[in-house]
Design a protein that fits this description.
Layout (H helix, E strand, L loop, with lengths): L7 H10 L4 H37 L4 H4 L6 E2 L2 E7 L4 E4 L22 H12 L1 E10 L4 E12 L2 E8 L5 H17 L1 H7 L8 E2 L2 E7 L5 E4 L21 H12 L1 E10 L4 E12 L2 E8 L2
Helix pairs in contact: 5-6
């Protein structure tokens, strides 16, 4: 099966994306990911329900139960608890090292004050969810994590799970950071966007930048070989002119969103992607996430 390309350059860019033969695999893989995350969230929600009932029944005495390996640990899931003033009270996992500390201003690897977000949501709504990056002891690396939590009196009970894909919120946060970096010092930012292991390349999240005047890539965190190439020649497996469409929207509105298929650098498969982008000083800046 062939796809529309305008030149040998367009073909080269398309090959960088991935072959058409990958499409059936992508559909199956994406569904598997969606099922996996739903199952992880269901397990986390079930464990949280049990933990909340335990606190409602026993009060502060329930905290000792959460710090033991046993009834409130479900394989890779565990319960932790924080006081409404930010004191870390209990944990059945690696975060037990934080017990006794005030974590209200603690930040993750990207600088996000996620505990503060939890405290604020718990105070205003009584429950919620927060996304951040946390060390996965199994993989020995920081990965995207989602935590569900609920307030019971002055105790916030929480259970988190590692997300198989980055989220929309994480993509938007990285775009905010990339736009700020580009506005502050463009040359340095374009270099930073392509640093392996840097703050702008995290698992399946990365930044790309295109010169809106001629469509040429200035930076690409997942495929540096695209730098200097004409993005107007780029097509996804369904023939969508990805960069051209983004530039057209950015010129009219200054920002936008686009759905298309693209190779996921962490799975090496073509998957459905949703990208947020903005126009900044004549440059198109984008960050996308692979949809679940």
């Amino acid at each position: 099966m062939s796809f529309p390309v305008r030149s040998a350059l367009g073909l080269a860019l398309l090959l960088a994306l991935g072959s058409a033969a990958s499409t059936p695999t992508f559909a199956q893989s994406a569904e598997t990911v969606r099922l996996s995350e739903r199952w992880d969230e269901t397990r986390a929600s079930t464990l949280l329900d049990r933990a909340v009932r335990n606190v409602e029944l026993k009060g502060e005495a329930a905290l000792a139960d959460f710090s033991r390996q046993g009834g409130f640990v479900d394989r890779d899931l565990y319960v932790y608890a924080i006081a409404s003033d930010g004191r870390f009270l209990a944990s059945g996992g690696s975060s037990a090292a934080l017990i006794g500390q005030n974590v209200a201003d603690h930040r993750d690897a990207t600088g996000k004050p996620f505990f503060r977000e939890m405290l604020d949501q718990a105070a205003s709504k009584g429950n919620g969810r927060v996304e951040y990056r946390w060390l996965n002891p199994v993989e020995n690396r920081e990965e995207p994590k989602v935590t569900l939590f609920r307030r019971v009196g002055e105790i916030i009970v929480a259970v988190g799970f590692y997300a198989p894909r980055a989220s929309a919120r994480q993509a938007m946060d990285m775009l905010d950071q990339a736009v700020a970096a580009l506005a502050a010092e463009a040359t340095t930012a374009l270099t930073d966007f392509q640093k392996v292991g840097g703050r702008f390349t995290q698992d399946d999240l990365y930044v790309f930048v295109v010169d809106m005047s001629d469509g040429r890539f200035l930076a690409h965190g997942a495929a540096p070989a695209l730098v200097g190439r004409n993005g107007h020649e780029l097509r996804d497996p369904k023939g969508k002119a990805i960069i051209t469409d983004m530039i057209n929207v950015a010129r009219k509105k200054g920002a936008g969103e686009l759905d298309y298929a693209w190779r996921n650098p962490t799975t090496s498969k073509v998957e459905s992607k949703h990208t947020y982008f903005r126009a900044v000083d004549g440059k198109l800046v984008g960050v996308g996430y692979y949809t679940r």
